[in-house]
Amino acid sequence: MSQTMSSAKRREGLFSNENRRKITWVLFLLPALLIYLTFMAVPLFDSLRLSLYQGEGYTPTTFVGFQNYIDLFTNQLWRGKFFGAVRHTFIFFAIHMVVQNSLGLLFANLLSSDFKGRNFFRTIIFTPATLSVLVTGFLWTLILNPNWGAVNKILVAMDLRQWALPWLGRENLALPIISLVSSWQWVGMPTVMFLAGLMGISDELLEAARIDGASEWDIFWRIKFPLLKPIIGIVSILTFVDNFNAFDVIYAMAGARGEPSYSTDLLATLFYRTGIAGEHPVGIPNMGMGAAIATVTFLILMAGVLFWLYLSRRQLAEEA
Amino acid sequence: MRRQKLNQVLTYILLTIWSVIVLFPLWTLIINSFKPQKEIFKDPFGFPKDFTFDGYIAAWKTGRFDLYFTNSLIVTVLSLTFILLVGSMAAYALAKWKSPVANFLYVFFIAGLMIPIRLGTIDLVRLIKALNLQDTIWSLIPVYVAMGIPIATFVLTAFIKELPGEMFDAAKVDGASEWQIYSRIVLPLMRPALATVAIFNMIKIWNDFWFPLVFIRSEESRTVALGVSLLFGQYRTDWTRALAVLSLAAVPLLILYVLLAREFIKGLTAGAVKG
After folding, report:
1. Cα B95 to the chain's mean position, in Å?
2. Contacts of B176 in chain A (CB under 8 A)
3. How far apart (Å, rounded) are the C-alpha atoms in residues A131 and A283?
4. What secondary structure does DSSP assign to A143-184, as a single string?
């Protein structure tokens, strides 16, 4: 009797039990929320607003509506570079998708069988992912150096002198080569994720197929591959998001201007030159335009993520 | 049986080829940093004959690697501390508070996994200037903490949700407050998950080049990544020094990786595998 009385009393007023608990939970959440809002969410959304302004330096104050976007899409000064950067970014992503993720799938499949030295190989495949992208880029610039680099020295020694090309100096070669270097660095990520997926497939299922006389090739394509589909989706979307704002590797291997003659210019390098460093030779950042480039990148990313969510929902629905 | 043998041989061959492709550049990086320039060009693949520390001495004298290391270390350690602290507190509330507010905030936090914080850089430059933090290492820390919160809340919330509920009920019956449960029960149990989050963010923060490039000019505030890029630019034609600079940047994390490979791999792929 007295217990129900006191709990009823406690429930009244601002400092009732219920409210006090709410306040406790809010206090737990507040520090993370404040930092996340101030240094991530608000800057991201304020960049969208900023893309509607023009003006030099740190305070673009003149409201111009969609003028920055119109310039970006139609003005001679911007159009070529912008669509070039979009195209290069898609190529950069596509090469990762094909080379890095196929190799990852292959390595995961090899590593999923039981043999001596498995952990050793897994550790090695993952090693480059712990390096700084900058170090990887600089290191490979030296290795690919046309005169002194190891790659061309080996080619010459193998009597393949005609293949000893200036890898980073040709417009049609530089972007694929840089994408391959970046794939070299990150192939461990899809490998480990696919490996986790393959370990989840029951041994009995695979053993039964083997007893029925299925080849490893058939087992991979008929059993493993379909079961890996959700993980392939996750790997794809991560590859997409990571490579759509790649900057360091281009900066290290081709400079902020995406040499030779902008052939390796990505959205992130264009964004950096326009909105932050300032385009050569003026050197004054155009923040409004930079924000417009960031916004377009953001929208492409969102479209990709929503498309992935749609696909994975549909697959879930089909399975259910 | 024979087919299985053949498969295994093929496995070894393919993995060995790739291991050579991975290790060979790292090997040449480290051995050539101890050779004079002439020997690098003449014999790039052998052990150094004219063993020299010139590259390292020059890099240490021109650049101030002691300073860069200290700066990177301060930034990484402080950022990680804050990420783990605020991230674990938020994760506890997100996992245990049954309310639409918590559900909404959970989605709001993990949306950051898909949106690179770099896209907000222009506004961050203005914000850092307004806070009078530009050109200091303190400008990096709040940005890195914000960058680490999505993965921290994602991994830690999932971890707390998997803890047995009776444990929490028992603690409450004993009269423990939420703070006590958090600090005395949840935090100690969460150590493996905290390690995963710490390693994931450690690699990202230590290797980050973008924000130092944007925020920092003066020598006093340079991090290792920024120092490497500036020194490498100066040394582009002097390979002994260039390779010494790259080795100095790469080796600390490589050693740590060799010691803790399992944790590193788990850390770097955190979030993806569970998602």
Report:
1. 26
2. none
3. 31
4. HT-TTT-HHHHHHHHTT-GGG---TTTSHHHHHHHHHHHHHH
Percent share of chain B, pLDDT over 70? 97
Contact A131 B272 (CB under 8 A): no
β-sheet bridge partners, residue A53: A63
CA distance from start to end of chain B: 38
The answer to whether residues B44 and B106 touch, using CB atoms and an 8 Å cutoff, is: no
Q: Which of A139, A181, A269, A276 to mutate to test the interface with B (most CBs of B within 10 A)?
A: A139
Residue B71, classed as helix, strand or coil, is helix
- The answer to whether the Cβ–Cβ distance between A294 and B26 falls below 8 Å is no
Pick from B21, B26, B146: CB nearest A40: B146
**How far, in Å, CA of A164 to CA of A154, rounded?**
9
Place of tokens 């993806």: B272
The span from the CA of B66 to the CA of B84, in Å, is: 27
- The enclosing domain of B158 has a CATH number of 1.10.3720.10
How far is the C-alpha of B68 from the C-alpha of B50, rounded, in Å?
Answer: 29
Q: Are B152 and B84 in contact (CB under 8 A)?
A: yes
- B211 assigned to some structural domain: no
Between chains, do B153 and A32 touch, taking CB under 8 Å as contact? yes
Of A245, A254, A251, A203, the closest CA to residue A224 belongs to: A203
Beta strands in chain A (DSSP E): 53-54, 62-63
Q: Is B235 inside any structural domain?
A: no
Nearest by CB to residue A43, choosing from B21, B124, B206, is: B124
The answer to whether residue B270 neighbours chain A at the CB level (below 8 Å) is no
Number of domains in chain B: 1
Render pLDDT for A244-297 as a digit per residue (tens, 0 to 9). Answer: 989 999 999 998 888 888 999 999 999 999 888 877 666 788 888 999 999 999
Average pLDDT, chain B: 89
B178–A contact, CB cutoff 8 A:
yes
User: Can you give the C-alpha Rg of chain A in angstroms?
Assistant: 26
Instruction: Give pLDDT, residue A2.
Output: 46
* Residue listed under structure tokens 């295994």: B8
Query: A299: which chain B residues are within 8 Å (Cβ-Cβ)?
Result: none
Q: What is the pTM of this model?
A: 0.90
Residue at B48 is within a domain: no
The full DSSP string for B18-40 is HHHHHHHHHHHHHHHTTS-HHHH
* Residues β-bridged to residue A63: A53
Per the structure, the complete domain to which residue B161 belongs is given by 77-198
The CA distance from B158 to the nearest CA of chain A, in Å, is 16
Q: Where are the domains of chain A?
A: 67-319
**Bridge partners, A62 (sequence order):** A54
Collect all residues with Cβ–Cβ distance below 8 Å to A19 and sequence separation of at least 6. none
* Largest distance between two CA atoms of chain B: 76
B177, amino acid identity: S
The reply to whether CATH 1.10.3720.10 applies to domain A67-319 is yes
The reply to whether B81 falls in a domain is yes
